[in-house]
From TrEMBL:
Keywords: Magnesium, Metal-binding, Thiamine biosynthesis, Transferase
Annotated binding of Mg(2+), by residue: 77, 96
Protein name in UniProt: Thiamine-phosphate synthase
Gene: thiE
Cofactor annotation: Mg(2+)
């Protein structure tokens, strides 16, 4: 998939899922299909508990499923792994590779995104011409980011003003119950984890979130 197609899919995206490799459940492929079918636009594999070879295998599965659905998939943190699997999206945190370093490894075709924990960081990311999207959060405290203070809904509103028409997502404690509050605060795109990874019916859960975002 070329950069132009990736950019179009990103622009039209609403629901971004971050999941581990589901090693304990052994249902990664089925789970990924369900989430894309339900309305996930981007799925990122983020699993700190597995080694590089296992991560590459899981990302190859994700790449296959994403291609079947015509959707985007993302790798996290490791540019070497992202390069090997030809990831559509490479996502970094504040202490990971700079955008210039990521571009040097991955080239111009990949989409780049970055997590931010304050309005200042978010503004810097939005202003970076090499970044394709920015993420703000956690909006609420979440066990996926232990010890990281929540930014709160007022920051989401500030970020909406800073971003203008640039692509950005809100993350952290976002689920079917809280998503309407995030939308009211100004976000049109969200990243979720447990809202889908712990759902008994991921298809239905994704559809419900999608409906909230499209109001």
């Amino acid at each position: 998939m070329d950069r132009q197609r990736r950019q179009l899919l990103l622009k039209n995206s609403r629901l971004y899922l971050c999941t581990d490799a589901r090693t304990d459940r052994g249902d990664l492929r089925e789970f990924l299909h369900a989430c894309y079918e339900g309305g996930a636009d981007i799925i990122q594999l983020r699993d700190k508990k597995i080694e590089a070879r296992a991560e590459i295998g899981a990302l190859e599965t994700l790449a296959e499923v994403a291609a079947e659905h015509g959707k985007l998939f993302a790798a996290n943190d490791r540019a070497d792994v992202a390069l090997l699997v030809d990831a559509d999206v490479f996502h970094t945190g504040q202490k990971d590779l700079t955008t210039q370093q990521a571009r040097r490894v991955l080239g111009p075709e990949v989409l780049l995104g970055r997590s931010n924990n304050s309005v200042a960081q978010f503004a810097e990311s939005i202003a970076d011409p090499e970044l394709d999207y920015a993420v703000i959060g956690p909006v609420w405290p979440t066990p996926t980011k232990p010890g990281r203070p929540a930014v709160g809904l007022p920051v989401v509103t500030e970020c909406a003003e800073v971003a203008g028409n640039k692509t950005w997502f809100a993350i952290g404690g976002v689920n079917a119950a809280t998503a309407p509050k995030v939308v009211d605060a100004g976000a049109r795109r969200i990243v979720v984890v447990r809202a889908l990874t712990e759902a008994a019916d991921p298809v239905a859960a994704a559809r419900k979130l999608r409906k909230i975002l499209e109001k």
